[in-house]
């Protein structure tokens, strides 16, 4: 499940004044703020961010259930942070328990999506925004996190319906952001540097999963 990483991954709230100061510093040649940081400041400025519709989802057919604001931070991806990765998780619990902790402001973590055993997909954070799911700030900023209901030591939890639904979801994400469909860009939580998590575990069938993702018509090559 998403790493508890609120302190390390908490947002630096930056207003218009900071944007103007940063722009002035850059104009006089200061090295304090790099060009990519200035771009991120721009997309956080009031009145610049993309319009949003309450309850909107990024994957057709997903159900919207909002995570606590404490478990993610507002962004305007991919304009401020490029998205080039999907991180696969297993919840180590039931679907209901995952929803509950992602709505708990004290948990400090949440993923963008949860896929239930029956294939139902719930979205809890917009892909625009940075979810605290990987336990690594840089990876959070560049990835979309997908949780899967179940336990890593119970292969029976990884159902056909779950694999199929998750593959469609990942294929759509990859197509949306031109992410290559390969194991360098679709990874498990265990592969994130600095994490102590083991999910999705030894029973996750990567060969099967990648084959299913590639079969989806919208998947990138």
Element-by-element helix/strand order: HHHEEEHEEEHEHEH
**How many runs of DSSP E, i.e. beta strands?**
8
List the uncertain runs: 10-29
Mean pLDDT: 86
Largest sheet: 6 strands, mixed
Q: How far from one another are the termini?
A: 29 Å
* Radius of gyration, taken over Cα atoms and rounded to an integer in Å: 18 Å
Sheet with the most strands: spatial strand order = 1-5-4-7-3-8
Q: Please identify the structural class as seen in this structure.
A: alpha/beta
Outline type: globular
Helix content: 25-40%
Beta percentage is: 5-15%
Helices, by number, come to 7
Question: What would you say this structure looks like, in words?
Answer:
With 221 residues, this protein is an alpha/beta fold. The chain has helices spanning 6-9, 16-27, 35-44, 95-102, 137-142, 160-177, 206-215, and strands at residues 63-64, 72-73, 85-88, 113-115, 121-123, 130-131, 143-148, 186-188. A six-stranded mixed sheet has the order 1-5-4-7-3-8, with helices on both faces. Strands 2-6 form a two-stranded antiparallel ribbon.
């Amino acid at each position: 499940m998403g790493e508890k990483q609120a302190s390390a991954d908490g947002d630096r709230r930056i207003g218009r004044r900071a944007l103007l100061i940063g722009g002035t510093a850059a104009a006089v040649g200061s090295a304090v703020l790099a060009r990519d940081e200035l771009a991120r400041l721009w997309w956080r400025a009031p009145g610049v961010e993309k319009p949003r519709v309450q309850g909107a989802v990024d994957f057709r057919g997903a159900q919207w259930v909002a995570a606590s604001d404490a478990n993610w931070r507002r962004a305007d991806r991919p304009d401020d942070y490029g998205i080039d990765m999907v991180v696969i998780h297993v919840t180590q619990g039931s679907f209901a328990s995952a929803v509950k902790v992602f709505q708990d402001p004290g948990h400090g973590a949440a993923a963008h999506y949860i896929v239930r055993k029956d294939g139902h997909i719930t979205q809890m954070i917009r892909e625009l925004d940075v979810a605290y799911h990987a336990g690594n700030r840089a990876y959070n900023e560049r990835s979309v996190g997908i949780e899967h209901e179940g336990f890593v030591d119970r292969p029976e939890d990884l159902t056909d319906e779950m694999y199929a639904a998750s593959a469609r979801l990942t294929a759509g994400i990859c197509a949306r952001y031109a992410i290559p469909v390969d194991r360098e860009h679709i990874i498990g939580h265990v592969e994130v540097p600095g994490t102590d998590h083991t999910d999705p575990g030894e029973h996750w069938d990567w060969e099967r999963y990648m084959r299913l993702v590639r079969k989806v018509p919208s998947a990138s090559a």
